[in-house]
Specification:
Blueprint: H1 15-26, H2 37-44, H3 48-60, E1 64-66, E2 73-75, H4 77-89, H5 95-106, E3 109-116, E4 119-125, E5 137-139, H6 144-151, H7 177-190, E6 193-196, E7 204-211, E8 217-225, H8 235-253
Antiparallel strand pairs: 1-2, 3-4, 3-8, 4-5, 6-7, 7-8
Helix pairs in contact: 1-3, 2-3, 5-8, 6-7
Protein name: IclR family transcriptional regulator
Keywords: DNA-binding, Transcription, Transcription regulation
Domain IclR-ED: 78-255
Length: 260
Amino acid sequence: MAEAVTATQSPPAGAQAVQRALGLLHCFHDNGPDLSASDLARRMGLSVSTAHRLARTLVSAAFLEQDEHTARYRLGPAVAELGQLSFHQRGLHLAAPELDLLSRRTGAAADLAIRSGPHAVILVGASVRPDTGLGLRRPLHSTALGKVLLAWPRPGDAGVATLGPLAPFTDRTITAPERLAEELAKVRTAGHALNDGESETGVRTVAVPVLDGAGQARFALAVRSTPAHLTDERLEWFLDHARACAGALAVLLLPPDQRI
């Protein structure tokens, strides 16, 4: 009889190299300048020789490029190709017209995000830079988008306890894990999340989930404005428009057998 697999079993051969290679790619998340082997080594906690060897392997597969003059690295064409392919496979190119319509109807900025670790990553909407096509990466705990993604997690998503220290961005930011857990319970009951100056003073955002048939947030949809425009008195009006848009996005972005 085969032995049962235990939690202490060693990872498969090569898994560490794969994890390190993926970690190396994640070093470029901040869209900063090209990185040297020393930069990569410092960010990864590796020796320079190991970082250089991993980077050269990724260059050979076109996941990284190396500048021939500076020897620094940047993301390569394979990453760009896969990113574009994923964007279209997810149907996200279909989302922009719906977000534009929501923005025109409400007079507020509209964004659509997914979760990536401790961040909400905006893929489509007003926060996507027109010059680069890149959206913002926002902390989960201080944003309406993030609270939605935490409140309706997908399988495998880590909980509040794994987010680490909850950094304050304003005096309204929730920084205590137990307080954030209470907030998420309120979000689930209300069906929406509110960010009232928690990430930036003078900005108010309301977000709703784009739910699948299992009740998990595949995306989070937000409208963002000022407290003078997005008032308490008009909150339900904004929510009606946001929920109508979320329903339309569910049809566009989710397969029929995964919709509510």
